[in-house]
UniProtKB/TrEMBL annotation:
SUPFAM superfamilies linked: FAD/NAD(P)-binding domain
Keyword Metal-binding among record annotations: no
Residues covered by the FAD-binding domain: 311-366
Domain of life: Eukaryota
InterPro entries assigned: FAD-bd, FAD/NAD-bd_sf
Co-factor(s): FAD
Name this polypeptide is given: FAD binding domain-containing protein
GO-annotated molecular function: FAD binding; monooxygenase activity
Keywords: FAD, Flavoprotein, Monooxygenase, Oxidoreductase
């Protein structure tokens, strides 16, 4: 084995994509080490649910046998196959569907539980922030902010949308975010079974929509059912759900309020603006308890461009390579596909079928083109989400698996 192949692949970032790559390299008996800047697994918030659909085969390919059953166990709804009827895009004024997105094979899972599942058998080096790197004869020397360093065959950066590695490679001007003129707030809500059931008559798992007059957007999705959160059979069974609202920035008054109190008040205000959201939707928002933590989701992206990776020594994957808005629900799927494709190229290198430089060049050639396109499609979807009157079946917000519902003759606002 050549000296470079004896060195470990260094993975930066122990999120879902970095851990999937680690599992894939472990399965292929390719030496690796994974580093994470957070001090422990639960250092960050639990995060939202994610849908795994087109990347499901790729994820399975990266994992040991038996993973399919384990993945089912971290679904937000254990009855997913029975309850999933797809998703709908609503007119928020009426709560009537404007578009129906039919069900396809997918797993809607808890991000936190999936991350924990992917950590099994992986030794993560935590509290390690990469501060720089330099090429060596056989690979790359990586420096950490604590003064230590490590040499690896290459650095695979899966360190998230604000990737430190991307900015070290390209600088802030080329590697920094593009913030969109859209603002978004999100909360986790705890819903009594009766209230959740009313929302589930719209769609059992998730729905989204826009108000025709104000352009305000809403997303709702289940995070856990009583069977998942152990409240089933208790005195007060409940559902946990994610609720997002967003709006276009048209002036200084559209900025996100600074305090949590004002952010929550702003969400409730948006639901009442103009003709207001439909009664069930509006009351769901108005009933959010005082003191509920409200998160701002920064809507920013980076259409992927090539970088100088020191002849196959540094590469990007996942959100580090193509950070995008969440309106198409594709980011995690692209990242999981990256992990599988990078694993296959590294396997070809270790088998002597390619040089390291060739393997990384082949991985990046496909990923950069697809990543750039995906980011721009998600950007367009984000903007389209706030213009229901102009929304059509060919919008990237709606495309993939969509049936458009005709407008009724007596109400062109449905």
């Amino acid at each position: 084995m050549s000296p470079s192949k004896q060195l470990p692949v260094i993975i930066s970032g122990a999120g879902i994509v970095g851990l999937t790559l680690a599992q894939a390299l472990k399965k292929e008996n390719i030496s690796f080490q994974i580093y994470e800047r957070d001090t422990h697994l639960h250092a960050r918030s639990a995060g939202w649910g994610i849908s795994i659909y087109c990347a499901h085969p790729a994820l399975a390919d990266c994992m040991p046998s038996g993973f399919a059953e384990e993945l089912c166990s971290v679904q937000v709804d254990l009855q997913h196959e029975l309850t999933d009827v797809g998703s709908v895009f609503l007119n928020l004024e009426t709560a009537k569907p404007r578009f129906v997105i039919p069900s396809n094979f997918r797993r809607r899972v808890s991000r936190e539980k999936l991350r924990k599942l992917l950590t099994a058998g992986i030794d993560v080096n935590r509290d390690k922030q990469i501060s720089g790197f330099n090429p060596t004869k056989n690979g790359i020397l990586i420096s950490f902010s604590d003064g230590t360093d490590v040499e690896g065959s290459l650095l695979a950066a899966a360190d998230g949308s604000g990737s430190n590695i991307r900015q070290l490679l390209l600088g802030m001007d080329l590697g920094g975010f593009n913030q969109l003129l859209v603002r978004s707030l999100a909360v986790t809500v705890c819903l009594p079974e009766e209230k959740a059931n009313r929302l589930q008559t719209i769609a059992p798992l998730k729905f989204q929509g826009c108000h025709p007059d104000t352009g305000y957007y809403m997303w709702y999705s289940i995070l856990s059912t009583p069977q998942v959160n152990s409240s089933f059979g208790a005195n007060n069974p409940h559902y946990e759900a994610q609720l997002n609202v967003s709006w276009l920035v048209k002036g200084s008054n559209d900025d996100v309020p600074e305090t949590n109190f004002d952010r929550l008040a702003n969400i409730k205000y948006l639901a009442r603006m103009g003709t207001g959201f439909e009664k069930t939707l509006r009351e769901t928002i108005e009933d959010i308890p005082d003191g509920t933590e409200v998160f701002e989701i920064t809507l920013a992206d980076w259409p992927t461009i090539p970088w100088h990776g020191f002849d196959g020594r540094v590469t990007l994957l996942g959100d580090a390579a193509h950070p995008m808005t969440m309106y198409r629900g594709e980011a995690a799927n692209h990242g999981l596909l990256d992990a599988q494709k990078l694993m296959k190229q590294l396997r070809a290198w270790h088998l002597g079928e390619k040089t390291r430089s060739e393997a990384l060049a082949d991985y990046e050639a496909e990923m950069i083109v697809k990543g750039h396109e995906a980011v721009l499609l998600s950007r367009k979807a984000c903007l389209d989400a706030h213009e229901i009157q102009n929304l059509s079946y060919d919008s990237p917000l709606i495309t993939r698996m969509t049936v458009a519902l005709p407008r009724t003759q007596d109400c062109d606002r449905c």
